[in-house]
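Worked example 3. Consider a protein that binds NAP.
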Amino acid sequence: MTKVAVWCRHAHDNVIGIGPHIPWKISSDFKRFRRITEGKSLVAGEKTYESFPNRTLPNRQIYVLTFNAKYKVSDEQNHFVVSDIEEFADIDDELYIAGGASVYKAFMTGGDTLMPDIVVDSMYLGELNPDLQGKKVDITDCINVLNEKYFRISQEYEEDNVITTVWVKKGDFVDQMVIKHIIKAIENQGEE
Ligand SMILES: NC(=O)c1ccc[n+]([C@@H]2O[C@H](COP(=O)([O-])OP(=O)(O)OC[C@H]3O[C@@H](n4cnc5c(N)ncnc54)[C@H](OP(=O)(O)O)[C@@H]3O)[C@@H](O)[C@H]2O)c1
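Given these inputs, the predicted complex is written out as structure tokens:
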């Protein structure tokens, strides 16, 4: 099983959200995320899941991480509640970790069985939306782990002021088919 964390953070401060919102609106960033995760299984924290339009992402199986085992998902065929993160330790499928900050951190600092094998690190170089109110949410803890325990295996891909690179956990065997899928999804810049 291969776990892949996918995020877009703001350069320098590693902010990924303000309140419930992503503080930039770059359609190519959403499209890249869609190309990487379409047809796959992903895990999202309850707050991030609530922020998806209509609480869904088409053509994806979503595991919603929440301590509330009675949480009601929007699509019972394709979305599933998980309350114990350790259930992902030996899941057979490919799993894409879609945030938010608490979920990235739980996986990145979760030891060998939870740490993502691959990280797709997108970095936004522009300005944060100045109109948003709320607390800034950052993933600095995760970036510290990334710099210490991963190495970069890709070139820098630039699109619309976002630089994307792919990282692999040091000492890990990584499924080459998954790497190929991710690189292809990133390189298909500008495509739907
Ligand atoms: N830029 C990006 O790439 C990106 C991607 C995703 C999200 N975001 C942003 O990130 C922010 C949200 O991040 P967040 O950290 O506040 O919220 P979050 O991680 O989306 O959700 C937090 C909730 O997930 C559940 N949870 C977290 N860890 C758990 C665990 N180990 N076991 C069981 N349940 C667990 C808890 O739900 P309960 O309270 O229901 O128990 C917790 O309150 C938003 O601003 C969002 O827009 C940005």
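Take a moment to read the result before moving on. The radius of gyration is 16 Å. The CA atoms of residues 31 and 192 lie 7 Å apart.
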